[in-house]
Amino acid sequence: MTINKGMRFLYAGQDSEEFEVMLCSIGNINTETNDEETSLVTSKSPFKDSWDLHYIENTAPLNFTLTIADINGLYLDSDRQRILKRWLCKDKRYWLQVDQDDLTEVYYYCIMNNPRPVNNAKFTGGMELNVICDCGHAWSYLHKEFYETNNGVLTFDFNNVADYDNYILYPTVIINPTKNGNISIRNNTTGDEVVIKNCITNEIITIDGRSDNAETTSYRRLLDDWNKNVVELITGVNNLTLTGNFKMLFEYRMPIRVGG
Question: Residue 18 has what DSSP assignment?
Answer without folding.
Answer: G
